[in-house]
Amino acid sequence: MIRVSGYSDDGITIDGDLKDSMDTCARDGVHGVIVIGDKAGGCVVRAFYNETWCTVDEGFGCWSLAVSQVDEGCPIPWNVTVRHDTIRGEVGYSTVVDVDCPAGTHVKWGMAQGGDIDWRGIGVTA
Prior knowledge:
The protein is mainly beta. The protein contains no helices and ten strands. The chain has one domain (2-124). The protein has strands spanning 2-7, 11-16, 20-23, 30-38, 41-50, 62-69, 80-87, 90-99, 106-113, 116-124. The protein has a five-stranded antiparallel sheet with strand order 3-2-1-8-7, with no helix packed on it. The N and C termini lie close together (9 Å). The model has no long low-confidence stretch (mean pLDDT 85).
């Protein structure tokens, strides 16, 4: 299982069978990309932080996590759950995406800006 969520206003956490984090995600036009699986079957989680379009109060923001298939005609082969993150019993500023992928699933993650991705890590679920 891989769990993705945002933290603070500038980081993404990867938890579950792999653990890592990426900072400096809050810059304009920069977002996190987590590829779980491959073209034979998998999904892509993209994480965006925005202070303007997701809230009615200026100065506050939240994380938006999007899930897609890896390519046209390639369904996501596992259960994917989106839920609220809770901090001290209250709803936090990030949704959480849980991907119920099996052991041996390849995962890579990085930061995207424009058409370029700066890959920060690669691993295999236990």
